[in-house]
Model the fold of this input.
Amino acid sequence: MKILIDIGHPAHVHLFRNLIYALRTKNHDILITARDKDVTINLLNHYNLNFKIRPSSSSRILSKFLGIIKITFYLWKISKKFHPDVLIGGVGNVYISILGWITRKPSLIFDDTENSKFELFFVKLFSKVIITPDCYLSKMGEKQIRYSGYHELAYLHPNQFTPNPSVKKELCLNGNENYSILRFVSWQASHDIGHSGISNENKIKVVNEFSKYTKVFITSEGSLPMEIENNRINISPEKMHDVLAFATLFYGESATMASESAVLGTPAIYIDNSSRGYTREEELKYYLVNNFTESLEDQEKSICKGVELLQQKNLKTNLFHCRQKLINDKIDVTAFIVWFVENFPSSFKIMKENQDYQQKFK
Done:
């Protein structure tokens, strides 16, 4: 089988890398195209995944329409030479959806972000299958397949990942010194329009408050206030999951990193006006994420919540059973998607007729 996979975000490298390894082991031919965003290229190179860089698009509406045409045309030219049997894309991948409709090849879109309204309009219209977590808040019609898991479990399920404690030495920590991870995003994606995130004043405040209890490291897509620039973490991007696994607390604007922390057993505070189905479930069912809006009032509340958590003795030990319940409830997402892709379209029919079939992949 020939499979074209388009990667538009660093998180999609992690989502698909184990799938790619497994399919290549079974002698399937994989072609990867990738957008040069943040650390995407560094991650692909680190995992020895050969790829072709494809064009990017702007978050501005007019430019985005032109970008859809440009990127889809590029992928169409690639597909004419490669002749894929199946097309795969991550969250809101408009280009793969439209390419599948043009070429009459099945497009499988793995989505977990309900607030990407612009992209999801095209995905719902043109894609063949939309594969989502079962906690996904939107109904996508007959094309939708729901599975019991999160994107993050494709690479952080215990079957797929064991954290490496040597990362603590790279962070220059003394013994069992506790630390918190803060994440600030650029708010440049199309679904980020209207968002402002945490104010600079509160970024400084959260560092000052958390520093009373732990060492504080920051990962940020953009510039930071001068007062906290020295807190920026200096570590290879592929080691971030090890960092999150041993952190005492995660605080920030990234839904993905909040969920990554949760499935690793690290409590998370997530700030965003648009909640996700998975961060909502991780709060209400597993008590591992605390969701707050971007309002100044909620920003203050989120900082207070962080201080409250950091003051607790044996915080992560007390949450061990919550993380264990999450793992026990969910499937090994990589095992599931390998089966689904390799056996498509029969797998689609099986899941429609018997959703419990996925329990084979625990």
